[in-house]
Amino acid sequence: MSQRSNSGLPETFSASEVAKALDCSEWWVKEQARRRRIPFMRSGSGYRFTRDHVEEIFRILEERPDSANTSESNDPSTRRRAQGASVAPAVQLRARRPRRARSAA
């Protein structure tokens, strides 16, 4: 490993090392790379990840609060009414008789 750090080449990480950092399974990391959802590089030993790749994966997976949820002026009850007004009226559902009760009658 000392040759690797002295050569000026970037250090790479295996899928299992990335999985540990993300707290997920190695299979999931490999599957995301296979489906081209996360950045990676391919080498003879499989998928490899640079530090930049791992940082970008963290950014891809990051979730931020919605701007509507962070605003103090938005009352949750008002938001629900406004959203419900644009939806078609709900249909009243009726329960059916159980199948065995229908065949017995």
Give a quick set of tags describing it.
105 residues, 10% strand, 7 helices, single chain, mainly alpha
What does it look like?
By secondary structure, this protein is mostly helical. 50% of the residues lie in helices and 10% in strands. The chain is built from seven helices and three strands; from the N terminus they run H-E-H-H-E-E-H-H-H-H. It has helices spanning 2-6, 15-22, 26-34, 51-61, 67-70, 76-85, 99-104; strands spanning 12-14, 41-43, 46-50. The chain has a three-stranded antiparallel beta sheet. Strand 2 (41-43) and strand 3 (46-50) form a beta hairpin. It starts with a helix and ends with a helix. The model has no long low-confidence stretch (mean pLDDT 81).
> What is the number of strand segments?
3
Overall, the morphology is elongated
Mean pLDDT: 81
Helix and strand string, N-terminal first?
HEHHEEHHHH
Q: Report helical residue fraction.
A: 40-55%
Major sheet: 3 strands, antiparallel
**Stretches with pLDDT under 50, minimum 5 residues:** none
Radius of gyration: 26 Å
Structural class: mainly alpha
N-to-C CA distance: 79 Å
Strand arrangement, largest sheet?
1-3-2
**What fraction of the residues are assigned to beta strands by DSSP?**
5-15%
Count of separate DSSP helical elements: 7
